[in-house]
Description:
Chain A is about 75% helix and about 0% strand. With about 290 residues, chain A is an all-alpha fold.
Amino acid sequence: MAIRKTTGERIFDAINVALLSALIVIALYPLLYVLFASFSNPGELSRYRGVLLAPLGFSTAAYQAVFANPNIATGYRNTLFYVVAGTTINMILTCLGAYALSRRNVMWKRPITLMIVFTLFFSGGLIPTYLLVARTLDWINTPWAILIPGAISTFNLLVLKTAFEQVPPALEESARMDGANDFVILWRVVIPLSLPALAVITLFYAVAHWNAYFSALIYLRDRSLYPLQLVLREILIANQTGDMTGGALGGDVEPIGETIKYATIIVATIPILFLYPFLQRYFVKGVLIGAVKE
Amino acid sequence: MATIQGVTGAGVKPRAVQKPKPSFWHRVVKDFKRNKYIYLMLVPVVAYYIVFHYLPMYGAQIAFRDFIPTKGITGSEWIGLENFEDFFGSPAFGRLLRNTLAINLLDILLGFPAPIILALLLNEVSTPWFKRTVQTVTYMPYFISIVVLVGMVIDFAARDGLINQILMGLGMEPIPFMTKPEWYWPIYVGSSIWQAVGWGSIIYLASISSIDPSLYEAAKVDGANRFHQLWHITLPGISPTIVVLLILRLGAMMSLGYEKTILLYNPLVYDTADVISSYTFRRGILDANYGFSSAVGLFNSGINFILLLLANWLSRQRGGSGLF
């Protein structure tokens, strides 16, 4: 170190590190607590008072109950389907729209862009949309109600349009000389040159599908179609661990209910947290792409 | 359009042009022939926007009708502003307005500066691994789904939950947070900050990293310590970003999503928890009171529209890009 730190700076550094360390604890501890509690012995946990620094005893009973719960397995399967099918639909439509609106010399481009951007400012509201999907289209209890009404996120469309505009026009021209039409140019030229932006947008859509519960809540009645988040809502918020604790456990029902909640949270969050280190980089990029849109 | 003007105006003096300007229809046909695949691509996109955005806008007219589903939209009787009058006259109106505004204001007051402060603190960290660790850990809560987040909040804030266990450990009385209306705002805003503060700091960190390093060098030569640098270089350097984001945030003053609210609240705390969107959801979808709740929704959409236009205009005034 060429420059010596003054005492004031050293004090500041120490306070800064202390503050940020406290923040790490605040951000991380709730998750750690859930993890420790999920592996704890249900009886011991219910009697225990205070913070946990390790599992109390060790029990996988809660996980056994979670994995034995058919709703969670079905929920996982459905969510996987909604994420894959939904993101595919999102990406096809968003790519088509972004490509079309990023081209030069398209006469109706401006009015169509305006029509799309207007929807960011004004919406008909929840109820008319609900009536459209539930009554006019009659999509109650169908996966369409989950997949189609949010098929394009206008924000993502505009971000991708900006990314597509960065592709040098000369490449498009030369492809056109070789007889390529717009579909070929989109697939062979524009998409391969915009992969980072596409990765970001795909992730935004996929995570949104993974986290979504509201359209499932209002459009789905049939439990076999429920996504994971809706199953989680019943277990975590509506407090329905009853059918998992089962009659066999007798008087032990209340304590194991708590650990089941924690185990459910872990089971439902682990995939995201595992992918997280890989995704983080793309998401950070995504925030920045969105920020320098224009 | 640009090319067409370019072609007619190219080289020759306008008055000497022999051919008349191509008619509108001629240009439409020519454009359509040249861009037929583009328009083919736009068909599903435009269809999507018409069906899922513009049809609901058309359907929002049920706010002015005594809507009976079997009669259809136009078949239901037109009652003018009756639904709106019912809403403005109901005791819920003042409460919803107050809660929506209060939660937003609290979030702007506490939630808006939090990521800025975090970014500034992170920027002062000289140990790279520590900085990376803080970033990785604080971004993480952002990836927890809203259902899991609320589930955790309800569990921790319960009478025998983690927070009360800590309070009791410190010799304090336990508080049944989730049943106390006065605790709802802090819980809502606090959990939002917990989830989003790290994530929100990304944009400010990027903004800080784009500040010209020579400014800091010059300041050091002039004897500025790190606090001076923070105050006179870093903060002014990111202030355009702060201003634009603040304006956009103010544009969302009257909107508060139902996603988190309808999970977090319960009838005991409706008094402070109920906001316009959650009320629309309850009256509309749960009680099937479609016309009335559409009026509530339309009232909110209208206010949001005005606020967003204002925010967008302000942001452009400030030299920012505007929202769009």
